[in-house]
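Reproducibility note. Readers wishing to regenerate the assembly model reported in the main text can use the exact inputs given here. Chain order matters: entities are listed in the order in which they were concatenated for prediction.
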Amino acid sequence: MKYESQRVAMPYFIFALVLFAGQIVFGLVLGMQYVVGDFLFPEIPFNVARMVHTNLLIVWLLFGFMGATYYLVPEEAQTELYSPLLAWILFWVFAAAGTLTILGYLFVDYATLADITLNRLLPTMGREFLEQPTITKIGLALVFVGFIFNIMMTALKGRKTVVNIILITGLIGLAALWMFSFYNPSNLATDKYFWWFVIHLWVEGVWELIMGAILAFVLIKITGVDREVIEKWLYVIIAMALITGIIGTGHHYFWIGSPEYWLWLGSVFGALEPLPFFMMVLFAFTMINRRKRNHPNKVATLWAMGTAVMAFLGAGVWGFLHTLAPVNYYTHGSQITAAHGHMAFYGAYVMIVLTIISYAMPIMRGRPYGNSNTAQVVEMWGFWLMTIAMVFITLFLTGAGILQIWLQRIPESGEALSFMATQDAISLFYWARMIAGCFFMAGLVVYLGSFFIKGQASFDDEVHDGPALKDA
Amino acid sequence: MAERFTKSMARNIYLGGSTFFILLFLVLTFDTQSRAMPERDNRDQLTEEVVRGKHVWENNNCVGCHSLMGEGAYFAPELANVFDRRGAADSDVFKAYMNAWMNAMPTNVPGRRQMPQFNLTDQEINDLSSFLEWTSKIDDNGWPPNIEG
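Running the prediction on these inputs yields the following C-alpha coordinates for the assembly.
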Protein backbone atom coordinates (compact mmCIF):
# COMPACT_ATOMS: atom_id res chain seq x y z
CA MET A 1 0.00 0.00 0.00
CA LYS A 2 1.61 3.21 -1.17
CA TYR A 3 -0.77 5.79 0.29
CA GLU A 4 -2.22 5.69 3.78
CA SER A 5 -5.65 6.89 2.61
CA GLN A 6 -6.13 3.76 0.48
CA ARG A 7 -6.90 1.99 3.75
CA VAL A 8 -10.42 3.47 3.72
CA ALA A 9 -11.24 0.69 1.25
CA MET A 10 -11.09 -1.80 4.14
CA PRO A 11 -14.46 -1.09 5.82
CA TYR A 12 -16.09 -1.15 2.38
CA PHE A 13 -14.67 -4.60 1.63
CA ILE A 14 -15.51 -6.00 5.06
CA PHE A 15 -19.08 -4.74 4.96
CA ALA A 16 -19.46 -6.04 1.39
CA LEU A 17 -18.50 -9.54 2.57
CA VAL A 18 -20.93 -9.39 5.50
CA LEU A 19 -23.77 -8.51 3.11
CA PHE A 20 -22.57 -11.25 0.73
CA ALA A 21 -23.08 -13.79 3.53
CA GLY A 22 -26.58 -12.39 4.13
CA GLN A 23 -27.37 -12.65 0.44
CA ILE A 24 -26.47 -16.34 0.38
CA VAL A 25 -28.52 -17.10 3.52
CA PHE A 26 -31.58 -15.65 1.79
CA GLY A 27 -30.65 -17.49 -1.41
CA LEU A 28 -30.93 -20.73 0.57
CA VAL A 29 -34.33 -19.63 1.95
CA LEU A 30 -35.53 -19.04 -1.62
CA GLY A 31 -34.14 -22.36 -2.78
CA MET A 32 -36.08 -24.09 0.00
CA GLN A 33 -39.28 -22.22 -0.88
CA TYR A 34 -38.96 -23.53 -4.44
CA VAL A 35 -39.26 -27.08 -3.15
CA VAL A 36 -41.23 -26.68 0.09
CA GLY A 37 -43.67 -23.95 -0.93
CA ASP A 38 -44.78 -22.87 2.55
CA PHE A 39 -41.28 -22.79 4.08
CA LEU A 40 -41.17 -19.83 6.54
CA PHE A 41 -44.63 -18.68 5.39
CA PRO A 42 -46.14 -16.30 6.38
CA GLU A 43 -43.17 -14.85 8.31
CA ILE A 44 -40.91 -14.47 5.25
CA PRO A 45 -42.94 -14.73 2.04
CA PHE A 46 -41.03 -15.47 -1.17
CA ASN A 47 -41.24 -11.90 -2.48
CA VAL A 48 -39.60 -10.54 0.69
CA ALA A 49 -36.79 -13.11 0.66
CA ARG A 50 -36.16 -12.46 -3.04
CA MET A 51 -36.07 -8.71 -2.55
CA VAL A 52 -33.54 -9.16 0.28
CA HIS A 53 -31.46 -11.59 -1.85
CA THR A 54 -31.27 -9.36 -4.93
CA ASN A 55 -30.97 -6.03 -3.12
CA LEU A 56 -28.20 -7.33 -0.88
CA LEU A 57 -26.37 -8.42 -4.03
CA ILE A 58 -26.65 -4.99 -5.62
CA VAL A 59 -25.67 -3.17 -2.44
CA TRP A 60 -22.68 -5.35 -1.63
CA LEU A 61 -21.38 -5.17 -5.18
CA LEU A 62 -21.63 -1.38 -4.96
CA PHE A 63 -19.70 -1.50 -1.66
CA GLY A 64 -17.15 -3.67 -3.44
CA PHE A 65 -16.85 -1.28 -6.39
CA MET A 66 -16.46 1.67 -4.02
CA GLY A 67 -13.81 -0.12 -1.98
CA ALA A 68 -11.98 -1.06 -5.17
CA THR A 69 -12.13 2.56 -6.31
CA TYR A 70 -10.84 3.99 -3.02
CA TYR A 71 -8.00 1.50 -3.14
CA LEU A 72 -6.87 1.83 -6.73
CA VAL A 73 -7.57 5.46 -7.70
CA PRO A 74 -5.01 6.98 -5.26
CA GLU A 75 -2.43 4.36 -6.23
CA GLU A 76 -2.94 5.02 -9.95
CA ALA A 77 -3.04 8.79 -9.47
CA GLN A 78 0.01 8.59 -7.15
CA THR A 79 -1.53 10.85 -4.55
CA GLU A 80 -3.48 10.60 -1.30
CA LEU A 81 -7.28 10.42 -1.48
CA TYR A 82 -8.85 13.92 -1.60
CA SER A 83 -10.92 13.33 1.55
CA PRO A 84 -10.72 10.12 3.60
CA LEU A 85 -13.18 11.72 6.02
CA LEU A 86 -15.82 12.07 3.29
CA ALA A 87 -15.22 8.44 2.33
CA TRP A 88 -15.82 7.41 5.96
CA ILE A 89 -18.96 9.55 6.29
CA LEU A 90 -20.39 8.12 3.06
CA PHE A 91 -19.54 4.62 4.27
CA TRP A 92 -21.67 5.07 7.37
CA VAL A 93 -24.49 6.79 5.47
CA PHE A 94 -24.62 4.03 2.85
CA ALA A 95 -24.27 1.25 5.42
CA ALA A 96 -27.05 2.72 7.58
CA ALA A 97 -29.37 3.33 4.64
CA GLY A 98 -28.76 -0.16 3.24
CA THR A 99 -29.25 -1.87 6.60
CA LEU A 100 -32.41 0.09 7.40
CA THR A 101 -33.87 -0.72 3.99
CA ILE A 102 -33.22 -4.45 4.38
CA LEU A 103 -34.66 -4.42 7.91
CA GLY A 104 -37.66 -2.55 6.52
CA TYR A 105 -38.23 -5.30 3.95
CA LEU A 106 -38.02 -7.97 6.66
CA PHE A 107 -40.01 -6.39 9.47
CA VAL A 108 -42.51 -4.07 7.78
CA ASP A 109 -45.22 -5.18 5.40
CA TYR A 110 -44.26 -3.86 1.93
CA ALA A 111 -47.48 -1.85 1.40
CA THR A 112 -46.96 -0.25 4.83
CA LEU A 113 -43.34 0.49 3.97
CA ALA A 114 -44.49 2.22 0.78
CA ASP A 115 -46.98 4.20 2.82
CA ILE A 116 -44.71 5.36 5.65
CA THR A 117 -41.88 6.27 3.25
CA LEU A 118 -44.34 8.47 1.30
CA ASN A 119 -44.02 6.53 -1.93
CA ARG A 120 -47.19 8.26 -3.17
CA LEU A 121 -45.31 11.57 -3.51
CA LEU A 122 -42.88 10.08 -6.02
CA PRO A 123 -43.86 6.45 -6.72
CA THR A 124 -40.76 4.44 -7.60
CA MET A 125 -41.23 1.25 -5.55
CA GLY A 126 -42.47 -2.20 -6.47
CA ARG A 127 -40.40 -2.68 -9.62
CA GLU A 128 -37.95 -5.57 -9.88
CA PHE A 129 -34.54 -4.72 -8.33
CA LEU A 130 -35.77 -1.14 -7.74
CA GLU A 131 -37.89 -2.07 -4.71
CA GLN A 132 -36.07 0.39 -2.42
CA PRO A 133 -38.19 3.16 -0.88
CA THR A 134 -37.85 6.43 -2.80
CA ILE A 135 -36.03 7.97 0.15
CA THR A 136 -33.39 5.21 -0.07
CA LYS A 137 -33.03 5.83 -3.79
CA ILE A 138 -32.44 9.54 -3.12
CA GLY A 139 -29.90 8.67 -0.42
CA LEU A 140 -28.09 6.35 -2.81
CA ALA A 141 -27.96 9.10 -5.45
CA LEU A 142 -26.42 11.47 -2.89
CA VAL A 143 -23.86 8.83 -1.85
CA PHE A 144 -22.91 8.42 -5.53
CA VAL A 145 -22.48 12.18 -5.98
CA GLY A 146 -20.28 12.55 -2.89
CA PHE A 147 -18.27 9.46 -3.83
CA ILE A 148 -17.64 10.60 -7.40
CA PHE A 149 -16.72 14.10 -6.21
CA ASN A 150 -14.11 12.62 -3.84
CA ILE A 151 -12.71 10.37 -6.55
CA MET A 152 -12.66 13.07 -9.23
CA MET A 153 -10.80 15.48 -6.94
CA THR A 154 -8.26 12.73 -6.23
CA ALA A 155 -7.79 11.74 -9.87
CA LEU A 156 -7.55 15.32 -11.11
CA LYS A 157 -4.72 16.29 -8.77
CA GLY A 158 -2.60 13.29 -9.71
CA ARG A 159 -1.37 11.16 -12.59
CA LYS A 160 -4.08 10.50 -15.18
CA THR A 161 -3.98 6.85 -16.12
CA VAL A 162 -6.24 4.98 -18.51
CA VAL A 163 -7.35 2.66 -15.69
CA ASN A 164 -8.50 5.64 -13.62
CA ILE A 165 -10.21 7.38 -16.54
CA ILE A 166 -12.16 4.26 -17.53
CA LEU A 167 -13.07 3.36 -13.96
CA ILE A 168 -14.37 6.88 -13.31
CA THR A 169 -16.24 6.92 -16.65
CA GLY A 170 -17.97 3.72 -15.57
CA LEU A 171 -18.83 5.13 -12.14
CA ILE A 172 -20.24 8.35 -13.60
CA GLY A 173 -22.31 6.26 -16.01
CA LEU A 174 -23.54 4.16 -13.08
CA ALA A 175 -24.64 7.26 -11.18
CA ALA A 176 -26.19 8.94 -14.23
CA LEU A 177 -28.21 5.86 -15.24
CA TRP A 178 -29.45 5.50 -11.64
CA MET A 179 -31.53 8.65 -12.29
CA PHE A 180 -33.83 6.53 -14.47
CA SER A 181 -34.88 4.67 -11.32
CA PHE A 182 -36.88 7.78 -10.44
CA TYR A 183 -38.79 7.72 -13.72
CA ASN A 184 -41.89 5.57 -13.30
CA PRO A 185 -44.55 6.49 -15.88
CA SER A 186 -48.11 5.19 -15.54
CA ASN A 187 -47.78 3.47 -18.88
CA LEU A 188 -46.32 0.03 -18.06
CA ALA A 189 -44.76 -0.37 -21.53
CA THR A 190 -42.84 2.92 -21.18
CA ASP A 191 -41.99 2.11 -17.56
CA LYS A 192 -40.41 -1.18 -18.66
CA TYR A 193 -38.56 0.45 -21.57
CA PHE A 194 -36.72 2.90 -19.29
CA TRP A 195 -36.40 0.46 -16.40
CA TRP A 196 -33.88 -1.35 -18.62
CA PHE A 197 -31.82 1.86 -18.84
CA VAL A 198 -30.86 1.14 -15.24
CA ILE A 199 -30.76 -2.65 -15.31
CA HIS A 200 -29.25 -3.48 -18.70
CA LEU A 201 -27.09 -0.41 -19.17
CA TRP A 202 -25.62 -1.08 -15.74
CA VAL A 203 -24.73 -4.76 -16.00
CA GLU A 204 -24.16 -5.00 -19.76
CA GLY A 205 -22.81 -1.46 -20.10
CA VAL A 206 -21.05 0.73 -17.56
CA TRP A 207 -20.37 -2.06 -15.04
CA GLU A 208 -18.21 -3.73 -17.71
CA LEU A 209 -16.03 -0.60 -17.71
CA ILE A 210 -15.69 -0.89 -13.94
CA MET A 211 -14.92 -4.61 -14.17
CA GLY A 212 -12.39 -4.07 -16.98
CA ALA A 213 -10.60 -1.32 -15.07
CA ILE A 214 -10.36 -3.35 -11.84
CA LEU A 215 -9.12 -6.40 -13.75
CA ALA A 216 -6.54 -4.29 -15.60
CA PHE A 217 -5.28 -2.81 -12.32
CA VAL A 218 -4.87 -6.21 -10.68
CA LEU A 219 -3.15 -7.62 -13.79
CA ILE A 220 -0.68 -4.70 -13.88
CA LYS A 221 0.16 -5.41 -10.23
CA ILE A 222 0.45 -9.17 -10.28
CA THR A 223 2.06 -9.69 -13.71
CA GLY A 224 4.32 -6.66 -14.02
CA VAL A 225 3.41 -6.48 -17.72
CA ASP A 226 3.97 -3.07 -19.30
CA ARG A 227 1.09 -0.71 -18.62
CA GLU A 228 0.92 0.34 -22.29
CA VAL A 229 0.04 -3.20 -23.34
CA ILE A 230 -2.60 -3.64 -20.65
CA GLU A 231 -4.21 -0.28 -21.39
CA LYS A 232 -4.50 -1.13 -25.09
CA TRP A 233 -6.33 -4.35 -24.24
CA LEU A 234 -8.58 -2.47 -21.84
CA TYR A 235 -9.60 0.00 -24.54
CA VAL A 236 -10.44 -2.81 -26.98
CA ILE A 237 -12.50 -4.67 -24.35
CA ILE A 238 -14.60 -1.70 -23.32
CA ALA A 239 -15.01 -0.62 -26.95
CA MET A 240 -16.48 -4.08 -27.67
CA ALA A 241 -18.63 -3.87 -24.54
CA LEU A 242 -20.25 -0.57 -25.49
CA ILE A 243 -20.46 -1.21 -29.26
CA THR A 244 -22.37 -4.46 -28.65
CA GLY A 245 -24.06 -3.71 -25.34
CA ILE A 246 -25.82 -0.41 -25.98
CA ILE A 247 -27.93 -1.55 -28.92
CA GLY A 248 -27.90 -5.00 -27.27
CA THR A 249 -30.43 -3.50 -24.84
CA GLY A 250 -32.82 -4.44 -27.65
CA HIS A 251 -32.82 -8.10 -26.54
CA HIS A 252 -35.02 -6.93 -23.67
CA TYR A 253 -37.38 -5.09 -26.01
CA PHE A 254 -38.78 -8.14 -27.80
CA TRP A 255 -42.00 -8.72 -25.84
CA ILE A 256 -42.80 -5.58 -23.83
CA GLY A 257 -44.61 -3.44 -26.38
CA SER A 258 -41.62 -2.03 -28.29
CA PRO A 259 -41.68 -2.15 -32.12
CA GLU A 260 -40.57 -5.12 -34.19
CA TYR A 261 -37.24 -3.73 -35.37
CA TRP A 262 -35.89 -4.49 -31.90
CA LEU A 263 -36.29 -8.21 -32.70
CA TRP A 264 -33.50 -7.84 -35.27
CA LEU A 265 -31.35 -5.31 -33.45
CA GLY A 266 -31.57 -7.16 -30.13
CA SER A 267 -30.75 -10.50 -31.73
CA VAL A 268 -27.76 -9.29 -33.77
CA PHE A 269 -26.14 -7.09 -31.13
CA GLY A 270 -27.09 -9.49 -28.33
CA ALA A 271 -25.30 -12.26 -30.20
CA LEU A 272 -22.16 -10.07 -30.28
CA GLU A 273 -22.27 -9.32 -26.54
CA PRO A 274 -20.08 -12.33 -25.62
CA LEU A 275 -17.17 -10.70 -27.53
CA PRO A 276 -15.93 -8.36 -24.77
CA PHE A 277 -16.09 -11.24 -22.28
CA PHE A 278 -14.16 -13.50 -24.64
CA MET A 279 -11.58 -10.73 -24.98
CA MET A 280 -11.33 -10.58 -21.19
CA VAL A 281 -10.41 -14.28 -21.07
CA LEU A 282 -7.71 -13.77 -23.71
CA PHE A 283 -6.58 -10.63 -21.85
CA ALA A 284 -6.21 -12.28 -18.44
CA PHE A 285 -4.49 -15.42 -19.72
CA THR A 286 -2.17 -13.62 -22.16
CA MET A 287 -1.03 -11.15 -19.52
CA ILE A 288 -0.44 -13.91 -16.96
CA ASN A 289 1.50 -15.96 -19.52
CA ARG A 290 3.67 -12.96 -20.31
CA ARG A 291 4.19 -12.10 -16.65
CA LYS A 292 7.45 -10.44 -15.67
CA ARG A 293 7.25 -11.73 -12.11
CA ASN A 294 5.64 -14.51 -10.12
CA HIS A 295 3.64 -12.64 -7.53
CA PRO A 296 3.56 -14.49 -4.19
CA ASN A 297 -0.18 -13.75 -3.93
CA LYS A 298 -1.15 -16.71 -6.10
CA VAL A 299 -4.80 -16.79 -5.07
CA ALA A 300 -5.37 -13.26 -6.41
CA THR A 301 -4.09 -14.50 -9.77
CA LEU A 302 -6.52 -17.42 -9.57
CA TRP A 303 -9.44 -15.05 -8.95
CA ALA A 304 -8.37 -12.84 -11.88
CA MET A 305 -8.38 -15.83 -14.26
CA GLY A 306 -11.55 -17.18 -12.68
CA THR A 307 -13.57 -14.00 -13.08
CA ALA A 308 -12.67 -13.74 -16.78
CA VAL A 309 -13.62 -17.36 -17.50
CA MET A 310 -16.80 -17.39 -15.43
CA ALA A 311 -17.96 -14.02 -16.78
CA PHE A 312 -17.50 -15.36 -20.29
CA LEU A 313 -19.48 -18.51 -19.47
CA GLY A 314 -22.24 -16.85 -17.45
CA ALA A 315 -22.69 -13.54 -19.22
CA GLY A 316 -21.35 -14.58 -22.61
CA VAL A 317 -22.32 -18.18 -23.32
CA TRP A 318 -25.43 -18.38 -21.13
CA GLY A 319 -26.52 -14.97 -22.40
CA PHE A 320 -26.08 -16.04 -26.02
CA LEU A 321 -28.16 -19.18 -25.39
CA HIS A 322 -31.35 -17.13 -25.19
CA THR A 323 -30.57 -13.80 -26.85
CA LEU A 324 -31.90 -14.65 -30.33
CA ALA A 325 -35.53 -13.58 -30.63
CA PRO A 326 -36.89 -16.90 -32.01
CA VAL A 327 -35.29 -18.71 -29.04
CA ASN A 328 -36.18 -16.03 -26.52
CA TYR A 329 -39.83 -16.32 -27.54
CA TYR A 330 -39.80 -19.65 -25.66
CA THR A 331 -37.20 -18.98 -22.97
CA HIS A 332 -38.26 -15.45 -21.88
CA GLY A 333 -39.10 -15.37 -18.17
CA SER A 334 -38.31 -19.06 -17.64
CA GLN A 335 -35.72 -20.73 -15.40
CA ILE A 336 -33.22 -20.21 -18.26
CA THR A 337 -33.25 -16.53 -17.32
CA ALA A 338 -32.58 -17.44 -13.69
CA ALA A 339 -29.71 -19.75 -14.70
CA HIS A 340 -28.07 -16.99 -16.77
CA GLY A 341 -28.61 -14.38 -14.06
CA HIS A 342 -26.88 -16.47 -11.39
CA MET A 343 -23.74 -17.35 -13.32
CA ALA A 344 -23.39 -13.96 -14.99
CA PHE A 345 -23.57 -12.02 -11.72
CA TYR A 346 -21.28 -14.45 -9.95
CA GLY A 347 -18.72 -14.66 -12.76
CA ALA A 348 -18.53 -11.04 -13.74
CA TYR A 349 -19.27 -9.00 -10.65
CA VAL A 350 -18.99 -11.15 -7.53
CA MET A 351 -15.68 -12.58 -8.71
CA ILE A 352 -14.15 -9.25 -9.81
CA VAL A 353 -14.89 -7.82 -6.36
CA LEU A 354 -13.39 -10.93 -4.72
CA THR A 355 -10.37 -10.53 -7.04
CA ILE A 356 -9.56 -7.01 -5.85
CA ILE A 357 -10.29 -8.02 -2.23
CA SER A 358 -7.91 -10.96 -2.59
CA TYR A 359 -5.21 -8.66 -3.93
CA ALA A 360 -5.75 -5.58 -1.74
CA MET A 361 -6.87 -6.90 1.66
CA PRO A 362 -3.57 -8.60 2.55
CA ILE A 363 -1.70 -5.39 1.64
CA MET A 364 -3.99 -3.26 3.79
CA ARG A 365 -3.54 -5.76 6.62
CA GLY A 366 0.24 -5.29 6.50
CA ARG A 367 1.03 -8.33 4.39
CA PRO A 368 2.50 -6.72 1.25
CA TYR A 369 3.28 -10.02 -0.49
CA GLY A 370 -0.02 -11.70 0.30
CA ASN A 371 -1.39 -14.01 2.95
CA SER A 372 0.46 -17.05 4.24
CA ASN A 373 0.52 -20.12 2.07
CA THR A 374 -2.02 -21.86 4.33
CA ALA A 375 -4.45 -18.95 4.10
CA GLN A 376 -4.08 -18.90 0.32
CA VAL A 377 -4.73 -22.62 0.03
CA VAL A 378 -7.88 -22.27 2.17
CA GLU A 379 -9.02 -19.30 0.05
CA MET A 380 -8.45 -21.42 -3.07
CA TRP A 381 -10.71 -24.09 -1.58
CA GLY A 382 -13.33 -21.38 -1.13
CA PHE A 383 -12.82 -20.31 -4.74
CA TRP A 384 -13.29 -23.80 -6.15
CA LEU A 385 -16.19 -24.75 -3.89
CA MET A 386 -18.15 -21.60 -4.67
CA THR A 387 -17.32 -21.63 -8.37
CA ILE A 388 -18.10 -25.31 -8.95
CA ALA A 389 -21.28 -24.99 -6.87
CA MET A 390 -22.32 -22.06 -9.05
CA VAL A 391 -21.67 -24.11 -12.20
CA PHE A 392 -24.00 -26.80 -10.85
CA ILE A 393 -26.65 -24.27 -9.75
CA THR A 394 -26.58 -22.94 -13.30
CA LEU A 395 -26.72 -26.39 -14.90
CA PHE A 396 -29.65 -27.52 -12.71
CA LEU A 397 -31.59 -24.31 -13.38
CA THR A 398 -30.87 -24.74 -17.09
CA GLY A 399 -32.23 -28.28 -16.91
CA ALA A 400 -35.30 -27.00 -15.07
CA GLY A 401 -35.72 -24.30 -17.71
CA ILE A 402 -35.47 -26.65 -20.69
CA LEU A 403 -38.05 -28.98 -19.16
CA GLN A 404 -40.29 -26.05 -18.23
CA ILE A 405 -40.24 -24.82 -21.83
CA TRP A 406 -40.88 -28.33 -23.14
CA LEU A 407 -43.91 -28.86 -20.89
CA GLN A 408 -45.37 -25.38 -20.56
CA ARG A 409 -44.33 -23.27 -23.53
CA ILE A 410 -44.00 -25.45 -26.64
CA PRO A 411 -47.35 -27.35 -26.65
CA GLU A 412 -50.50 -25.61 -27.94
CA SER A 413 -52.95 -23.98 -25.54
CA GLY A 414 -55.07 -26.72 -24.04
CA GLU A 415 -52.30 -29.28 -24.23
CA ALA A 416 -49.61 -27.33 -22.40
CA LEU A 417 -49.12 -27.97 -18.69
CA SER A 418 -50.07 -25.08 -16.38
CA PHE A 419 -47.33 -23.09 -14.63
CA MET A 420 -47.85 -24.75 -11.25
CA ALA A 421 -48.17 -28.26 -12.67
CA THR A 422 -44.91 -27.66 -14.53
CA GLN A 423 -43.20 -26.50 -11.33
CA ASP A 424 -44.20 -29.77 -9.64
CA ALA A 425 -42.92 -31.76 -12.60
CA ILE A 426 -39.46 -30.19 -12.46
CA SER A 427 -39.02 -30.16 -8.68
CA LEU A 428 -36.18 -32.70 -8.84
CA PHE A 429 -34.02 -30.04 -10.51
CA TYR A 430 -34.92 -27.56 -7.77
CA TRP A 431 -33.86 -30.07 -5.11
CA ALA A 432 -30.55 -30.57 -6.93
CA ARG A 433 -30.09 -26.80 -7.14
CA MET A 434 -30.75 -26.57 -3.40
CA ILE A 435 -27.99 -29.09 -2.70
CA ALA A 436 -25.61 -27.17 -4.95
CA GLY A 437 -26.63 -24.02 -3.04
CA CYS A 438 -25.57 -25.66 0.23
CA PHE A 439 -22.17 -26.39 -1.29
CA PHE A 440 -21.94 -22.73 -2.27
CA MET A 441 -22.63 -21.78 1.34
CA ALA A 442 -19.93 -24.22 2.48
CA GLY A 443 -17.53 -22.59 0.02
CA LEU A 444 -18.40 -19.17 1.36
CA VAL A 445 -17.73 -20.30 4.95
CA VAL A 446 -14.33 -21.68 3.91
CA TYR A 447 -13.57 -18.48 1.99
CA LEU A 448 -14.48 -16.26 4.94
CA GLY A 449 -12.52 -18.56 7.25
CA SER A 450 -9.35 -17.89 5.23
CA PHE A 451 -9.35 -14.30 6.53
CA PHE A 452 -8.73 -15.55 10.07
CA ILE A 453 -5.55 -17.47 9.28
CA LYS A 454 -2.48 -15.63 10.48
CA GLY A 455 0.86 -15.15 8.78
CA GLN A 456 2.01 -13.75 5.49
CA ALA A 457 3.86 -14.62 2.33
CA SER A 458 7.41 -13.33 2.22
CA PHE A 459 9.39 -11.48 -0.39
CA ASP A 460 11.47 -14.62 -0.89
CA ASP A 461 8.44 -16.43 -2.28
CA GLU A 462 8.75 -14.28 -5.34
CA VAL A 463 10.65 -15.64 -8.31
CA HIS A 464 12.69 -12.84 -9.85
CA ASP A 465 12.81 -12.86 -13.59
CA GLY A 466 11.92 -9.25 -14.17
CA PRO A 467 11.39 -6.03 -12.26
CA ALA A 468 11.13 -6.81 -8.57
CA LEU A 469 7.84 -6.35 -6.79
CA LYS A 470 9.36 -3.68 -4.58
CA ASP A 471 9.71 -1.44 -7.63
CA ALA A 472 6.23 -2.04 -9.00
CA MET B 1 -1.93 -7.84 -30.54
CA ALA B 2 0.40 -6.71 -33.32
CA GLU B 3 2.52 -3.67 -32.56
CA ARG B 4 1.11 -1.69 -35.47
CA PHE B 5 -2.23 -1.69 -33.63
CA THR B 6 -1.47 1.11 -31.19
CA LYS B 7 -3.08 2.22 -27.96
CA SER B 8 -4.36 5.42 -29.55
CA MET B 9 -6.08 3.40 -32.29
CA ALA B 10 -7.77 1.31 -29.60
CA ARG B 11 -8.83 4.47 -27.78
CA ASN B 12 -10.28 5.95 -30.95
CA ILE B 13 -12.33 2.83 -31.60
CA TYR B 14 -13.66 3.06 -28.05
CA LEU B 15 -14.52 6.75 -28.25
CA GLY B 16 -15.85 6.70 -31.81
CA GLY B 17 -17.73 3.43 -31.44
CA SER B 18 -19.39 4.27 -28.16
CA THR B 19 -20.36 7.78 -29.29
CA PHE B 20 -21.90 6.44 -32.50
CA PHE B 21 -23.90 3.72 -30.75
CA ILE B 22 -25.08 6.02 -27.95
CA LEU B 23 -26.42 8.42 -30.59
CA LEU B 24 -28.02 5.57 -32.55
CA PHE B 25 -29.63 4.30 -29.36
CA LEU B 26 -31.06 7.75 -28.62
CA VAL B 27 -32.50 8.01 -32.15
CA LEU B 28 -34.07 4.54 -31.86
CA THR B 29 -35.45 5.40 -28.42
CA PHE B 30 -36.99 8.57 -29.80
CA ASP B 31 -38.60 6.64 -32.65
CA THR B 32 -39.83 3.87 -30.33
CA GLN B 33 -41.34 6.29 -27.84
CA SER B 34 -42.80 8.93 -30.14
CA ARG B 35 -43.87 6.99 -33.22
CA ALA B 36 -44.12 3.26 -32.60
CA MET B 37 -45.35 2.71 -29.06
CA PRO B 38 -48.44 4.94 -29.11
CA GLU B 39 -49.82 2.55 -31.74
CA ARG B 40 -48.90 -0.57 -29.76
CA ASP B 41 -49.50 0.05 -26.04
CA ASN B 42 -53.20 1.10 -26.26
CA ARG B 43 -52.43 4.19 -24.20
CA ASP B 44 -55.77 5.71 -25.22
CA GLN B 45 -57.37 3.23 -22.82
CA LEU B 46 -55.03 4.12 -19.95
CA THR B 47 -57.79 5.19 -17.53
CA GLU B 48 -57.52 6.49 -13.96
CA GLU B 49 -58.53 3.03 -12.83
CA VAL B 50 -55.62 1.42 -14.69
CA VAL B 51 -53.17 3.95 -13.23
CA ARG B 52 -54.43 3.23 -9.70
CA GLY B 53 -54.20 -0.47 -10.46
CA LYS B 54 -50.52 -0.12 -11.37
CA HIS B 55 -49.91 1.43 -7.95
CA VAL B 56 -51.69 -1.48 -6.25
CA TRP B 57 -49.43 -3.80 -8.27
CA GLU B 58 -46.31 -1.91 -7.19
CA ASN B 59 -47.23 -1.22 -3.55
CA ASN B 60 -47.70 -4.92 -2.88
CA ASN B 61 -44.54 -6.03 -4.69
CA CYS B 62 -46.45 -8.46 -6.91
CA VAL B 63 -43.40 -8.69 -9.19
CA GLY B 64 -41.53 -10.31 -6.28
CA CYS B 65 -43.22 -13.64 -7.10
CA HIS B 66 -44.99 -13.22 -10.45
CA SER B 67 -43.71 -12.19 -13.85
CA LEU B 68 -45.47 -9.57 -15.95
CA MET B 69 -44.70 -9.70 -19.67
CA GLY B 70 -42.01 -12.21 -18.72
CA GLU B 71 -40.18 -9.91 -16.29
CA GLY B 72 -40.12 -10.34 -12.53
CA ALA B 73 -39.77 -13.46 -10.41
CA TYR B 74 -40.51 -16.94 -11.73
CA PHE B 75 -42.06 -18.35 -8.56
CA ALA B 76 -45.69 -17.77 -9.53
CA PRO B 77 -47.59 -17.61 -12.84
CA GLU B 78 -47.19 -15.00 -15.60
CA LEU B 79 -49.90 -12.37 -15.26
CA ALA B 80 -49.79 -10.32 -18.49
CA ASN B 81 -52.25 -12.81 -20.00
CA VAL B 82 -54.14 -13.82 -16.83
CA PHE B 83 -57.09 -11.79 -18.16
CA ASP B 84 -57.32 -14.26 -21.04
CA ARG B 85 -56.39 -17.34 -18.99
CA ARG B 86 -58.66 -16.85 -15.97
CA GLY B 87 -61.09 -14.19 -17.14
CA ALA B 88 -62.01 -15.65 -20.54
CA ALA B 89 -61.10 -12.16 -21.92
CA ASP B 90 -64.26 -10.73 -20.32
CA SER B 91 -64.03 -7.81 -17.85
CA ASP B 92 -66.90 -8.91 -15.60
CA VAL B 93 -65.83 -12.54 -15.47
CA PHE B 94 -62.25 -11.49 -14.69
CA LYS B 95 -63.24 -9.07 -11.93
CA ALA B 96 -65.42 -11.69 -10.27
CA TYR B 97 -62.57 -14.20 -10.53
CA MET B 98 -60.04 -11.74 -9.07
CA ASN B 99 -62.34 -10.91 -6.18
CA ALA B 100 -62.79 -14.54 -5.27
CA TRP B 101 -59.09 -15.32 -5.72
CA MET B 102 -57.62 -12.44 -3.73
CA ASN B 103 -59.96 -13.07 -0.81
CA ALA B 104 -59.26 -16.83 -0.73
CA MET B 105 -55.53 -16.39 -0.19
CA PRO B 106 -53.57 -17.97 1.36
CA THR B 107 -54.76 -21.52 0.72
CA ASN B 108 -52.67 -22.90 3.61
CA VAL B 109 -52.33 -26.24 1.82
CA PRO B 110 -49.29 -27.82 3.54
CA GLY B 111 -46.13 -27.82 1.42
CA ARG B 112 -47.65 -25.74 -1.40
CA ARG B 113 -46.46 -22.29 -2.48
CA GLN B 114 -48.49 -19.70 -0.63
CA MET B 115 -49.73 -16.33 -1.84
CA PRO B 116 -50.07 -13.88 1.08
CA GLN B 117 -53.36 -12.20 2.01
CA PHE B 118 -52.92 -8.57 0.95
CA ASN B 119 -56.17 -7.27 2.48
CA LEU B 120 -57.07 -5.26 -0.61
CA THR B 121 -60.36 -3.34 -0.70
CA ASP B 122 -62.94 -4.14 -3.38
CA GLN B 123 -61.95 -0.93 -5.14
CA GLU B 124 -58.26 -1.94 -5.14
CA ILE B 125 -59.06 -5.39 -6.54
CA ASN B 126 -61.14 -3.70 -9.21
CA ASP B 127 -58.30 -1.31 -10.12
CA LEU B 128 -55.75 -4.12 -10.16
CA SER B 129 -58.02 -6.12 -12.49
CA SER B 130 -58.31 -3.14 -14.84
CA PHE B 131 -54.53 -2.77 -14.86
CA LEU B 132 -54.02 -6.44 -15.73
CA GLU B 133 -56.73 -6.26 -18.41
CA TRP B 134 -55.07 -3.18 -19.96
CA THR B 135 -51.67 -4.91 -19.81
CA SER B 136 -53.02 -7.96 -21.64
CA LYS B 137 -53.90 -5.72 -24.60
CA ILE B 138 -50.40 -4.29 -25.21
CA ASP B 139 -49.06 -5.47 -28.59
CA ASP B 140 -46.14 -7.62 -27.41
CA ASN B 141 -45.27 -9.36 -30.70
CA GLY B 142 -47.45 -12.31 -29.81
CA TRP B 143 -45.78 -13.38 -26.55
CA PRO B 144 -46.33 -15.71 -24.68
CA PRO B 145 -46.46 -18.73 -26.99
CA ASN B 146 -49.64 -20.12 -25.38
CA ILE B 147 -52.27 -19.35 -22.75
CA GLU B 148 -50.23 -20.86 -19.88
CA GLY B 149 -47.75 -17.95 -20.03
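We highlight two features of this model. Residues 1-146 of chain A form one domain. Residues 373-409 of chain A form the longest helix (37 residues).
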